[in-house]
Design brief:
By secondary structure, the protein is α/β, with parallel strands linked by helices. The chain has ten helices and eight strands. Helices cover 48% and strands 14% of the residues. The strands form two sheets. The chain has a four-stranded parallel β-sheet with strand order 2-1-3-4, with helices on both faces. Strands 6-5-7-8 form a four-stranded parallel β-sheet, sandwiched between helices.
């Protein structure tokens, strides 16, 4: 006989974190105000011994077992043993997997924790994007030490779009502009040279890009920003800094952002 002085208990059993099952149970329990259902989560269940222990506990307190187990052997074992022990069970994920299989005609992977891994991957990407924004254009030299990669080069060598593109590949990228009148951050010379990527470009190409940029801003293309002699001075200065660091250098003169990003990704994988 159920002891009505004891709070109802639901054991949540999962071969992953168990958050999905717990949320479902709590959502269902919320429809019964004043019952005070206690949820006890048992995560990362991969063996039959743990299943036996949970069934024993559930039997002692007249609990229900709600589960998200994707491996058929473990799922079937829990169902059979719980039935033998007269313990009620609710399969939260199994029926939906069966329905998805019937409409897709595909076989399930039977891998625990895939949703959690997808979420983890998503948050890594968001973190990398936020990092790229925070440490864009040399705003904070402290990002150089924390970054997976540091892009250096003169203005308009695609540092910012490259940082954002690589962030979608889960890389934390800081970028630092090289300007003759501004001493580069000390951190650039403290980190591994392989962590930095120098971006160079032909003077003529950079002149065209900067002239277009000035035009878009409604400014005269004759400004010092697009002056060919000034550009050559900047490029010579940047190349000198890159040589001092000893970092790899990529010529972006005739490359799309995607092409340069793929080159950088391949360099990172090889390192």
């Amino acid at each position: 006989m159920v002891d009505f002085n004891q709070r109802p208990v639901v054991y949540v059993v999962s071969d992953s974190v168990g958050e999905t099952a717990e949320l479902v149970v709590k959502a269902a329990a919320s429809q019964y105000s004043g019952t005070g259902v206690e949820v006890r989560r048992i995560p990362y269940v991969e063996d039959k011994q743990t299943i036996d222990e949970v069934i024993l506990l559930a039997r002692q307190v007249k609990a229900i077992i709600a589960f998200t187990l994707v491996v058929p052997e473990i799922r079937n074992y829990l169902t059979e043993k719980a039935k033998e022990a007269n313990v009620e069970t609710v399969d939260i994920i199994g029926p939906m997997m069966d329905k998805i299989g019937s409409i897709t005609n595909a076989a399930p992977r039977y891998e625990p924790g895939l949703v959690y891994r997808l979420d983890e991957d998503y948050f890594r990407k968001v973190e990398a994007i936020e990092f790229a924004v925070k440490y864009d254009d040399g705003r904070d030299p402290r990002g150089i030490v924390r970054a997976d990669l540091v892009l250096i080069g003169v203005s308009r060598t695609s540092k910012t779009p490259l940082s954002q593109y690589l962030a979608h590949k889960r890389l934390k990228v800081a970028n630092v502009p090289l300007v003759p009148e501004v001493e580069p951050p000390e951190e650039l010379f403290q980190v591994s040279p392989q962590k930095c990527i120098g971006l160079k470009i032909s003077p003529e190409k950079l002149n065209d890009i900067r002239a277009e940029r000035l035009k878009a801003l409604g400014l005269k293309s004759q400004a010092n920003y697009a002056n060919i002699d000034r550009i050559k001075e900047e490029l010579a200065y940047a190349e000198d800094i890159m040589k001092r660091i000893g970092c790899p250098i990529i010529d972006v003169s005739n490359k799309a952002v995607e092409e340069t990003a793929n080159l950088i990704s391949n360099m990172v994988q090889r390192s």
